Amino acid sequence: MKYITLILALALCSCSVLKQVPEPVNSDYTIFHSTRGEIVYHHEQVDVVSTFPGGEPAMFEWMEKNIQYPRDAVESKKEGTVYASFIVEKNGKVSDIVIIQGIFPSCDKEVKRLLGKFPKWTLAIKDDKKVIVDLAHLLTHKLRYSRLI
């Protein structure tokens, strides 16, 4: 890749990360109410999963153009994979970005910034209704391809 190797997998972690995790709504599924009182579905529970507009190739291209390597991380020779989860709302916007495992404060902050700038995603569908879904991404920072901020 041109600036940063983004070993970016729509790994879609099997763990749901929310700030507060109330009791499950339905014992057949792991469905939780978000902090706003709405149901958030795990990506494996929906009929159609939210996707980046244009699919994975478009997402890789968009991220490559928009991610920047923090100068202090380069100076400290920090690289590695940041694991982050987020929610795709019913309107396609990304929210509730959580760093599950970071590598360096400024790299983690850059991942949150980048995910927060995502364009609207296609909507998740369950039982012919638009639903909120949780997803996760892995972003790998490699020094040799860095573009500094």
Account of the protein in words:
The protein has 149 residues and is an alpha+beta fold. The protein has a single domain, classed as TonB (TolA/TonB C-terminal domain, 2-Layer Sandwich). It is built from three helices and six strands, in the order ββααββαββ. The chain has helices spanning 55-66, 71-75, 105-116, and strands at residues 32-33, 39-42, 80-88, 94-101, 124-126, 129-141. Strands 1, 2, 3, 4, 5 and 6 form a six-stranded mixed beta sheet that branches. The protein is elongated. The chain starts with 31 loop residues before the first strand and ends in an 8-residue tail after the last strand. The model is unreliable at 1-28 (pLDDT under 50).
Distinctive features:
single chain, 149 residues, alpha+beta, TolA/TonB C-terminal domain, six-stranded mixed beta sheet, 19% helix, 26% strand, elongated, disordered N terminus
